[in-house]
Amino acid sequence: MPACRIRRPLYGLLFLVWMIVGFLVGCAGIKKFESTDLPKNLPPAIELEAVPFYPQSDYQCGPSTLAMALTYSDLPITPEALKSQVYTPSQKGSLQMAMIGATRRHDRIAYPIFGLNSVYPEIAAGHPVIVLQNLGLSWIPVWHYAVLIGYDFIDNTVILRSGITERKVMSLDTFDKTWARSDYWGLIVLKPTRLPAIASEKDYLSAVFGLEKSSRFQAAIEGYQTALTRWPRSLIAFMGLGNSLYALGDLHGAEEAFRMAVKNHPGAAEAYNNLAQALLEQGHKQEALATAQKAVAIGGPMREVYEATLKDIQSKE
Amino acid sequence: MCRIKRVEKVVSILMTLILVIIFAPVPSVLAAMVGTEAVLVNQDTQNARDQLRSFLNREDVQSQLTLRGIDPAEAKARIDSLSDAEVMQIADKIDQLPAGGSFWGTVLFVTIIAFVVLVVLELLGYTDFI
């Protein structure tokens, strides 16, 4: 069987090539901090002195940092009040997802931040950043949340509210090393009426969607409306706005949002589908029927859903 | 005997009721609505496909592909036949490549595409050399 003899070495060779490619690509992904990469047009030094300080008690850095960020976003709260929502006693700490979840439960947008260069513009825009540091070694981790409130490019330092220290000045190099060990996990806590300094449409809307998913519909509506001030044609924002209004029972408001979606995106079948449903529930059967037919005509990966909607409308005639 | 039967009857009716309540289909109001999450995901995969296509349209990428004996048009057709999850994976790889279209980045990317094209060809049964 000569074919079999060819097979094996080629398999091995391809695997080897793949491993090498993976390794190289992996390496390329790791980017060390370089001061030449600094974004321009930023003040050389800034400190957000208005960020309150709650000294942490044992292992309570999660609740205390979140309380600082929430209080700063006009929602006064104590670390004690957050403890049950964030702290996991068996872990003697707070998980990142719990921090994000608790932020949403207080009607605030949890916007993720990665890396030093995305931090400076946020601080300059008045948004303190909760960072997860590993103050130990990579193999003896000492995880710690702190709030980054300032930086100084002249001294090459950053300023943190950390543990029981109200104003901790740390060298940029040390901060970079301790933060890198958490893959630069950072979080900003935003009122739904605010945008991050540097926001991508998708990241911001994913963060707002987190509010919708946690059933904080009113806050989600505000977030989607804020998104529309920056990206006035965003399909996701219109859809999210319509769905959140629909969830609150505001059929007319939902209808308006879906109408804006189809106006700006005539090829968005999902928007026609939801518009049809909102119309049907308000008793406008004729227009609902025509709208659902449009959705089916456009089709796409969710065609079955549109067909079900159409069938539903037809059955009610 | 009779009493036991009566108890049995009551218990069985109760159990039936509980079962019916547990497994009764809950009519979902949102059944006909497309959720925001689906729109988010859709747009994501659409962006990933667009990104891949524009990458394959780059001249340096095309010349690298030709150098490896792969017809760029064929590579594009193969990419179109990948599932959403696979496209996202490749797009993620591109994101990790050094920015600015450096020479080595292009070579790496082309190697990835070449590998994908090979695997797809193999899976579709066009070739049998793996």
Describe this structure as you would to a colleague.
The complex is a heterodimer of chains A (317) and B (130). With 317 residues, chain A is α+β, with helices and mostly antiparallel strands. In chain A, 54% of the residues lie in helices and 15% in strands. Chain A contains 13 helices and nine strands. In chain A, strands 1, 4, 5, 6, 7, 8 and 9 form a seven-stranded antiparallel beta sheet that branches. The N terminus of chain A is likely disordered. Chain B is mostly helical. In chain B, 74% of the residues lie in helices and 0% in strands. In chain B, helix 2 crosses helix 5 and helix 3 packs across helix 6. The radius of gyration of chain B is 27 Å and the shape is rod-shaped. Chain B starts with a helix and ends in a 7-residue tail after the last helix. About 4% of the residues of chain B have low confidence. The interface between A and B is medium-sized, with 38 and 28 residues.
The helix/strand series of chain A, from N terminus to C terminus, equals: HEHHEEHEHEEEEHEHHHHHHH
Radius of gyration of chain B: 27 Å
Bin the strand percentage of chain A: 15-25%
The largest pleated sheet of chain A is described as:
7 strands, antiparallel
Structural class of chain B: mainly alpha
Approximate strand percentage of chain B: under 5%
What is the helix/strand order of chain B? Answer: HHHHHH
The CA-CA distance between the termini of chain B, in Å, is 74 Å
Shape of chain B: rod-shaped
Distance between the termini of chain A: 68 Å
User: Could you report the average pLDDT of chain B, rounded to the nearest whole number?
Assistant: 73
Main interface by residue count = A-B, 38 and 28 residues
